[in-house]
C-alpha cells in the first residue's frame, strides 16, 4: 500500500453518485421487476448493466445489505444484494445471486416477455451454436472462480509480500481470461473476444465489468495497480468502461474509494465476502 495512505474510517455509501444516480432516479417508480441494490456493490452492477443493456423495465431500490432489512431477507436468504422482486406475481416471487439473475434476464429479454424500446441484443451467441455459448460460459466461469476472488485477496492483503502475491494473482487471473477471449477469436468467434467486433456486451463482459472498473479506481488508489502492458487489453478496458450500459450504472470514483477503504485496510467483519477471503473459503 502506498505509504501516505491511512485508514480514515470512511464507510460505504448509501446512495449512487454521477451517472448511476441519474439512472437510479430515472428508475425510481414501480415496475414489474424491482432490483434491490447497493451503489458500491459489483455483483449488483452486473445485474444493473444487464437490465440496461437488455432494455428491460425495472425499478432500482437502494438497500443497505449490512443492515439486512426484512424486505431484503425475504428475497435473499443471506441478505445479500443483488436481489430481484418479481412484482407481477401475487405474492411476489424472488431471485438472488448475480449470475443466476443475469441468466434469467437474458432469457426474459430473448423470450420477449418484457422489453422496453432500448436495445434487444442477447449477451450470448445464438442458441443454434451451443459450442460458442459454452465458450462464453467458460469465460464467465474463470471470472467467477478466479478473477473475482483474486481481486479481493489483492485488495485485502496488508503485508507487502502478500500484496505482491495478490497483484500477481490478479494479473494471472486477467491473463487467464485474455487467453479465453483469444481462444474465442481464434476459433472464429471474434464478437466474443477482446476485440468484440459487434461493439456489444457479452455475458462475460457483464460478469467482469464491475471488477475492471474497480481495478481502475480502487486497486489503483490503494495498491498502485496498473494494467498489464498489452495495448489490446487496455483497448478492451476502455471500450468496456465506455459502453453506455456500463457508464449508466457507474458512480463517481470517490464513491468507490470511500466504500472500499474498509477492504483496503481489511477491517474486521467488513462483509461476508471479506470474511470468506480471510478464512480461505469460497465466496458467498
Ligand atoms: N454471490 C453473490 C454475492 C453478493 C454479495 O456478496 N453482495 C454483497 C455486497 S457487494 C452483500 O450483499 N454483502 C452483505 C454482507 O456481506 O452481509 C452474488 O453473486 O450475487
From TrEMBL:
It comes from Dichomitus squalens. Gene3D superfamilies: 1.20.1050.10, Glutaredoxin. This is Thioredoxin-like protein. GO terms for cellular component: cytoplasm. Residues 31-113 form the GST N-terminal domain. It comes from the Eukaryota. Residues 129-272 form the GST C-terminal domain. InterPro entries: Glutathione-S-Trfase_C-like, Glutathione-S-Trfase_C_sf, Glutathione_S-Trfase, Glutathione_S-Trfase_N, GST_Omega/HSP26, Thioredoxin-like_sf.
Amino acid at each position: 500500500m502506498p505509504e501516505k495512505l491511512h485508514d480514515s474510517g470512511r464507510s460505504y455509501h448509501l446512495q449512487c453518485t454521477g451517472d448511476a444516480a441519474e439512472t437510479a432516479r430515472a428508475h425510481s417508480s414501480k415496475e414489474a421487476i424491482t432490483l434491490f441494490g447497493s451503489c458500491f456493490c459489483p455483483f449488483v452492477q452486473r445485474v444493473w448493466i444487464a437490465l440496461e443493456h437488455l432494455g428491460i423495465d425495472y425499478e432500482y431500490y437502494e438497500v443497505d445489505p449490512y443492515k439486512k432489512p426484512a424486505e431484503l431477507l425475504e428475497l435473499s436468504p443471506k441478505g445479500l444484494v443483488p436481489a430481484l422482486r418479481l412484482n407481477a406475481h401475487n405474492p411476489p416471487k424472488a431471485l438472488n445471486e448475480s449470475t443466476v439473475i443475469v441468466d434469467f434476464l437474458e432469457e426474459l429479454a430473448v423470450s420477449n416477455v418484457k422489453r422496453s424500446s432500448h436495445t434487444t441484443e442477447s449477451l450470448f451467441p445464438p442458441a443454434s451454436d451451443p459450442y460458442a455459448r459454452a465458450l462464453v460460459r467458460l469465460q464467465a466461469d474463470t471470472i467467477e472462480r478466479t478473477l473475482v476472488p483474486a481481486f479481493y485477496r489483492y485488495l485485502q492483503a496488508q503485508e507487502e509480500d502478500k500484496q505482491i502475491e495478490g497483484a500477481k494473482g490478479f494479473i494471472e487471473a486477467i491473463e487467464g481470461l485474455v487467453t479465453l477471449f483469444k481462444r474465442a477469436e481464434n476459433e472464429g468467434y471474434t464478437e466474443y473476444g477482446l476485440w468484440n467486433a459487434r461493439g456489444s456486451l457479452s455475458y462475460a463482459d457483464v460478469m467482469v465489468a464491475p471488477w475492471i472498473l474497480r481495478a481502475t479506481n480502487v486497486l489503483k488508489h490503494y495498491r498502485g495497480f496498473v494494467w498489464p502492458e498489452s495495448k489490446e487489453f487496455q483497448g478492451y478496458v476502455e471500450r468496456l468502461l465506455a459502453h453506455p450500459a456500463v457508464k449508466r450504472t457507474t458512480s463517481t470514483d470517490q464513491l468507490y474509494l470511500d466504500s472500499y477503504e474498509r477492504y483496503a485496510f481489511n477491517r474486521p467483519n467488513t462483509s461476508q465476502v471479506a470474511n470468506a477471503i480471510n478464512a480461505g473459503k469460497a465466496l458467498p
